[in-house]
Sequence to fold (348 residues):
Amino acid sequence: MPRSFNQKLKILYVKKVLEEKSDRDHPMQVRDIIANLQAYGINAERKTIYDDIEALRLFGLNILNRRGKVSGYYLEERTFEFAELKFLTDMVQSSHFLPVRHAQKLIRKLEGLTSIHQAKKMQRQALAACETRMENGEVYVNIEVICNAISADRQISFSYYEWTVEKKLRQKKNGAFCRMSPWKLFWRDDSYYLLGLDENSGVVKHYQVDKMKDMQLEKEKRNGAAIFRDLELGKFSMDAFGMSGGRDVLLKAEFDNHLIGTVLDRFGTEVTIRKSDEEHFLFQAHVCVGKQFFGWLAGLGEGVRIIGPEKIRKEYTTFLKQALRNNEGRNEDKNNGKIQASGTSGKK
Fold:
């Protein structure tokens, strides 16, 4: 680009230099700004820099002049505060549904929203290994298609994948396309989900966005407006992800005090809780009881006791006994296999 044309863009480059290289702890003197402009092929005098800074202030940039031992101009306010960018960067780093190349690109963009000095303070961590991340390069495209469909009140179609025991992704439903009226995108348990009405079954379903491929925007209008107008997303999320496959039951249980955080994180603060004794509290709430819920309870070990209904208490006891039998049976089979193999080897 001709040097004379760059001169016309000088004020924009002053803005760029301050955004990239200045902050409260790293102010820039006028001579530093001039030196950085020269790297872009722009010559400047001190007076014009003062004029440019004043013009940028009038435009709305909060440029301050720090006095003292470390002095100079710096950009005081940005669109995102450092803590906000740190939070967003950590979220991207821990989001396994984003392919590594997408995550790295997004982190670089976030770091570009602050000074190079603040970006270093974010202490970028190594991204999770590729095998722990989805490598579906269609994630961004999927999100855009879904948002377009919701905005245009139209259906979508896509193929859906699932994990195999070989840690490979395969198409579900023998490769048949899913047809859906999309309504909500939401985040749960470190994954991004689409909630909508399955057009084939007429049932409300959710799908992981990173397991959707070959997505198409269809011409047909969405169905299910009445369902999703009255649907409480928070309640659906809790039922579908922690307690699915069961019945709604008014459950009464006693927990050890140290589990209060676990219980409130799972059920929210609206549940009924009262002190039982110095070491326990009583819990009462409507819960969708099924195998997933029993599995969650079992993970709490000896810290929980179901009080009622009696039928649910007995079902939970049966669930635990069956799990124990399954585990003991598998161990016996393995041991018998080892004995038989050893005996066979001896005969040879």
